[in-house]
Amino acid sequence: MQDDFIWWRDGIIYQIYPRSFADSNGDGLGDLPGITSRLDYLAELGIDALWLSPFYPSPDADFGYDISDYTNIDPRFGTLADFDTLVAAAHQRNIRIIVDLVLNHTSDQHPWFLESRSSRNNPKRDWYLWRDHPNNWQSFFGGVGWEWDAATRQHYFHMFARQQPDLNWRNPKVHQEMLEVFRFWAERGVDGFRLDVFNAYFKDENYRDNPRKFGLRGFERYNHLYDINQPEMHPLLNEIRTLLDHYPERYAVGETFVASPETSASYCGPGKLHAAFNFDFTFRKFSAAEFADSIQKWTQATGAEIWPNYVLSNHDQPRSATRYAHGEDDTRARLALGMLLTLRGTPFLYYGEEIGMRDIRLKRSEILDPPGQHYWPFYTGRDGCRAPMQWDASPQAGFSSAKPWLPVHPNYRQRNVAAQQQDPGSLLNFVKKLIALRRSSPALQRGDFRLLCDPAQGVLSYERQTTAQHLRVHLNFSARPQALPATDVSPSLVLSSHRDSLNQPLQIAPGEVLILQTPA
Ligand code: GLC
């Protein structure tokens, strides 16, 4: 590893949804000791950091994204001592830990909200957004965003489920408490923070109505001028960054909610966040032209100053293999991961993506996710991508000795880590090769990026280079073999999903990932 290696820039970040990764105590729910027990697997995979979705005490109205205590561990996931053990064991393996901070809202069972709703005169009344008359702000999970509280005869605002009341970030005490949350985890050795819907923390002071626009779902029918992206966020980010910069090599990545590449980029840079998620791939069709367009738009928005990132899957979207692949064939998953792991920008991998896990399908009565329950059958929610990790072919895929909280995908007997470890041609072994290559290649980690030819033919080609290393990546998204552009000197083969040697004239097979090197 180079001396100037910066983990969040040059490394690969792996997202774990703790309740679905590994269950150590047989209650059907993954937990922190379960994650610790799988660290060797993750180290061997070659990732540099883990982002853990919430593990804090939560009534689970939104599966951990409704937090009732920011500085503790839900007993179902373990204890603070288990957390310390996980951090120490990860650090021993050079794996950093990123925790998920959900600071836009609390659970309605958080002691702050219980106090706030207890009476209009309670000192914490103003910690949340209470109004006599609702305005037209909507809940992202469906319906109006205001909930009537019969006892105190006012409405409170919730951007998500009604069990997730939004905090009033304008209240200085809320502001202070929240900065304490950062300090608490930074002091415990956490390396980074993922900020859940941070660009919604502040709402318009005068509660102005959002203008209407065309859209399908309720939330999309408004132009979110007054409930998202308020100017107060910028000085706050500066304060957060100053706090983080007191510790060495800390990182903050924000989940920009409903935002253009330009808006996302405006939150990043010196004195702001290190990164804001780029989810654009998750909305794109599987085509060279679509991905090229996406890469160009984000490259333009981030410019030279902001380090980009790419996401193919997370706990809110159908998995990449589900979106792209045909049946159990992994050709398309190989192409997508070949792209993710060779672009200029931090790759985020979602647990199980390395073995091509597909989403599970649920009957209506089995749906647990609140927006899935609300919008069924038009939208079936996010449970599909949150199924248990498929470790081996034993019952419950080696995830748990009990019935898991969500069913295991029926393909687990064939598609699992143990089987793919044994198979040299598996997706897992291909991903490992790509990661090993990225780790050993300064050009892939931080070299310049240049798109090479018109992707209209179905081949996405780009150059990644430093002064010492020139690489070309070719990804054939089309169903036909394609000729590759000639180079002045003959290239050498670095990695291919399809072959061991190069033939002239250079061609790329359908579905092939091909990485070539030319002399620098
Ligand atoms: C973010 C999370 C999502 C959660 C929502 C509310 O979008 O990624 O899972 O439901 O915030 O906290």
Descriptors for this entry?
single chain; 18 strands; alpha/beta; Immunoglobulin-like; 26% helix; 2 domains; binds alpha-D-glucopyranose; globular; TIM Barrel; 520 residues
Structure report:
With 520 residues, the chain is of the alpha/beta class. It folds into two domains: 8-106 and 171-203 and 249-436, Alpha-Beta Barrel (TIM Barrel), CATH 3.20.20; 446-518, Golgi alpha-mannosidase II (Immunoglobulin-like, Sandwich), CATH 2.60.40.1180. Helix content is 26%, strand content 14%. The protein has 15 helices and 18 strands. The strands form four sheets. Strands 9-8-7-3-2-1-11-10 form an eight-stranded parallel beta sheet. A five-stranded antiparallel beta sheet has the order 12-13-14-18-16. Strands 4-6-5 form a three-stranded antiparallel beta sheet, with no helix packed on it. Helix 11 runs parallel beside helix 14. The longest helix has 16 residues, at 172-187. It is globular. The two termini are 21 Å apart. The model has no long low-confidence stretch (mean pLDDT 96).
